[in-house]
Amino acid sequence: MNYGLYLSATGVLANTYRQDVIANNLANSETVGFKRHLAHFQQRPVESQVQGRGDLSDPMLDRIGGGFLQSPTMLDTTQGDMETTGNNLDAAIFGDGYFAVSNKGKVQLTFAPSGKVSSAELTDGPFAGTPAGKCALKHFKAAHVPPFSGAAQTVAKSFKIP
Length: 162
Fold this sequence. Notes:
Blueprint: H1 3-27, E1 37-43, H2 47-51, H3 59-64, E2 68-75, E3 104-111, E4 117-124, H4 131-141, E5 153-160
Antiparallel strand pairs: 1-2, 3-4, 3-5
């Protein structure tokens, strides 16, 4: 392949990558808690430098360079703007840090004598009223035990969402 075309192609790919990162940032700019991503690039060394072989070198082409390489995006961890909501349950962190979120919960299941779950309730953990909690309850409601005689039985179970 013509070396000049290769260098031009690396520039086009790098710019496409940059535009993708910017588009993602714009698309998520109104998402609460979103942290923007930063596109990073590095200069690609010429092949003679990569292989450590000066005999592969062409001094004229080596001065042109080896093009660009995209590096993985970096997360911008600078603090965003604080927004006063007036809600007593809203919280924010000033300065460095993140909220620690628990992935543990507790569910209470009531089994009918038929062995099917007659009720399920999240009793502990951060999942109540969240999509993750609804998903967990859906799976717990599908549980069953062998049929038994007598009154309905209630059990509690701790769980952890990986």
